[in-house]
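Hi support team,

I've been running sequence recovery on a batch of backbones for a student project. Most finish fine, but this one hangs at about 90% for roughly twenty minutes before it completes. I'm not sure whether the input is malformed or the queue is just slow. I've pasted the structure tokens below so you can try to reproduce it. Let me know if you need the job ID as well.

Thanks,
M.K.
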């Protein structure tokens, strides 16, 4: 578990991808 917790770079990369998807979905919903 500790090894995965130390992989901040990969975690940040995943978060950035998730944020992009959420932003794209939010824009689609806002456009309605």
């Amino acid at each position: 578990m500790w090894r995965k917790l130390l992989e901040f770079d990969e975690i940040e990369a995943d978060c950035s991808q998730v944020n992009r998807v959420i932003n794209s979905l939010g824009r689609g919903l806002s456009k309605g």
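--
Follow-up from support: It reproduced on our side and the slowdown came from queue contention, not your input. The chain has a mean pLDDT of 79. No action needed from you.
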